[in-house]
Design a protein that fits this description.
heterodimer; A: alpha+beta; Ubiquitin-like (UB roll); five-stranded mixed β-sheet; 1 helix; 5 strands; globular; B: alpha/beta; Rossmann fold; eight-stranded mixed β-sheet; 7 helices; 17% strand
């Protein structure tokens, strides 16, 4: 069953609505959102509430419901 | 105790934190991977906090641009191996600390006999390598990362979710892009934004988590990944579960 969620870009607080099928994965959301916002460089992760979503998880496995909000946050990798 | 004797011990004030196990900290053997901004801050905190057996690995040399955020580097160190400089200056801070420099890539390390491993790196490839070795050897791994005013700390305890459990295609794209620019396995590393205050916060958190683990207080550790935003001065800890597809957990699932 299709769910319609909001994906928020935490860097600028803009958001997009996304329709997801049960067999799609968290990585599909990352890909689509990163492409939409033109984020070619850098690594990103998705959070739902206080939970970080595994990339390989499928939509049907993460209990997503209509109007849920998912946040995309940059994953800092520097340290030099 | 004799009058005024209470401040004679360097760690007197630390010992007043009842659960803190200074002896265990002093006897622990730790590996710090990376001797840049995070590595400098981590080693500084470690020797001041009582860590006495530290190995620091880094293949890189000191550059002038490092001086804005590396407390142990000096102008005259330009061109010298970072691990060697960190080891020498840390020993000046605490002469009874044994800080061993390893001037090599982490990928070349053969010895993984440590109680704690600290990830103070600047790229995903070395992080994943360090993470997988720590997982394989059952060593707690504490990873730090920064980008400008943002940072993160992840505590990987044996059997728990690891760095690779949180990786997705966007991380792999970063990996791919760095190996495709010059070919031949040469790593192209873009210069990320970096400044000292974020490095200080993140490295201090890494060392604090190690202190908890060594003091038998792993239950107080970050459960998952703590993301820090220095612009808003907020931090948030996200829980993470073991990814069934993660190769580091094949035997535990």
């Amino acid at each position: 069953m299709t769910v319609r969620v909001t994906v928020v870009n935490t860097l600028n607080n803009s958001s997009i609505r996304m329709e997801l099928e049960p067999n799609e994965s968290v990585e599909d959301i990352v890909d689509t959102a990163a492409e939409y916002w033109g984020k070619d460089a850098g690594a990103y992760v998705l959070r739902k509430g206080s939970k970080l979503l595994n990339g390989s998880q499928r939509i049907e496995e993460i209990n997503l419901y209509d109007d849920d909000v998912i946040e995309m946050i940059p994953d800092p990798e520097g340290g030099r | 105790m004799r009058p005024r004797e209470y401040d004679a011990d360097r760690f007197d004030r630390m010992r007043r934190i009842g659960w803190l196990d200074v002896d265990r900290i002093q006897n622990s053997k730790c590996l710090v991977v990376g001797a840049g901004a995070l590595g400098n801050e981590a080693v500084k905190c470690m020797v001041l906090a009582g860590f006495r057996r530290i190995a620091v690995v880094d293949m890189d040399s000191v550059a002038v641009s490092n001086l804005s955020r590396c407390v142990l580097f000096r102008d005259e160190d330009a061109g010298v191996n970072k691990a060697e400089v960190v080891a020498r200056r840390a020993s000046e801070l605490c002469p009874d600390a044994c800080v061993a420099p390893l001037a090599s890539k982490v990928q070349e390390l053969k010895d993984w006999d440590y109680d704690i491993v600290f990830g103070c790196l600047d790229n995903i490839s070395a992080r994943l390598h360090t993470n997988s070795h720590a997982c394989f050897h059952g060593i707690p791994y504490i990873d730090g990362g920064t980008d400008g005013f943002r940072g993160k700390v992840q505590v990987v305890l044996p059997g728990g979710p690891c760095l690779e459990c949180a990786v997705n295609k966007s991380h792999m794209r970063v990996l791919d892009s760095r190996f495709s620019c010059t070919g031949g396995g040469t790593v192209f590393v873009p210069k990320a934004a970096a400044e000292i205050t974020t490095a200080s916060v993140i490295a201090a958190m890494q060392v604090r988590e190690a202190i908890k683990i060594l003091s038998g207080k792993s239950d107080l550790c970050i459960r998952g990944i703590c993301y820090y935003n220095g612009e808003s001065c907020e931090s948030d800890t996200l829980t993470l579960s073991v990814d069934p597809a993660c190769p580091n957990h094949e035997e535990t699932l």
